[in-house]
TrEMBL record:
Keywords: Isomerase. It is an enzyme of class 5 (isomerase). GO terms for molecular function: isomerase activity. This is Amino acid racemase. Belongs to the aspartate/glutamate racemases family.
Length: 240
């Protein structure tokens, strides 16, 4: 007899640390009292996926789309009902990928922007911390504007600091100069941002590591919560 519980498929490995954090978010945000009440998941840790920002900068997205499509097919054959991709930059291809799979994709960008609109209302000023690729393609800028939010991106100097945190710090495992982060934060606050989207899954890891406040909206956590609801589970309410 087929299990009636929904299955979430995950195209992960971008990066691996972010994928394990996404899995943790799914567990911690699901209202469950025993193993059997959690969500069945199939996690494909595709660590050798081409660098997404580099693919955007080089205008070479065809190979990336091919690999994502193959992974979606693998997850469909594995019994998944939905697919989540814990990688913001990959969402540059989410519409094209959706056309190539019958499984609904959980859109991280829409989930994060919707959460901000519900929390802060239209007209809110939203800082965006993301990779060069995500910023260049305007993924969050377009979604924020569509929802009546005002997107703010870092200055070129501070965008370099964001990339340093993502690539030299989280991905490479090197030391992180917290002063870099505070400099970026100061710029957003000086521009009267109501909140800042952590629009890179490595920055989700950074937020957890440094226990940042809710001023920093975790896009990956917003996607996790949406995936939980789509899989017919209830969200755990945290009092903290």
């Amino acid at each position: 007899m087929k299990d009636k519980n929904k299955v979430l498929g995950v195209i992960g490995g971008m990066g691996p640390l972010a994928t394990q954090l996404f899995y943790k978010m799914m567990i911690e945000n699901t209202q469950a009292h025993r193993d059997q009440e959690h969500i069945n998941m199939v996690i494909l840790n595709h660590a050798t996926m081409p660098d997404r920002t580099q693919a955007i900068m080089d205008d070479e997205l065809d190979d990336l789309l091919t690999r994502l499509t193959e992974d979606a097919e693998t997850l469909e054959k594995s019994g998944a009902d939905y697919i989540a991709i814990p990688c913001n930059t990959c969402h540059v291809l989410i519409d094209e990928l959706q056309e190539k799979t019958s499984l609904p994709l959980v859109n991280m960008i829409k989930a994060a922007a919707r959460q901000i609109e519900e929390t802060h209302g239209k007209g809110a000023r939203v800082g965006i911390m993301a990779t060069d690729g995500t910023v260049k393609m305007g993924l969050y800028q377009k979604e924020c504007e569509a929802r009546g939010l005002v997107p703010i991106i870092p200055s070129p100097e501070n965008q370099k600091r964001v990339m340093k945190i993502i690539y030299d710090g989280i991905k490479d495992g090197g030391p992180i100069d917290y002063d870099d982060f505070e400099t970026v934060e100061t710029e957003f606050r000086d521009q009267e941002c109501d909140c800042v989207i952590m629009a890179c899954t490595e920055l989700s890891c950074f937020k957890e590591q440094y226990e940042l406040s809710d001023y920093f909206v975790d896009a990956m956590e917003a996607m996790a919560k949406e995936a939980i609801v789509l899989c017919d589970k209830k969200l755990r309410r945290n009092d903290k």
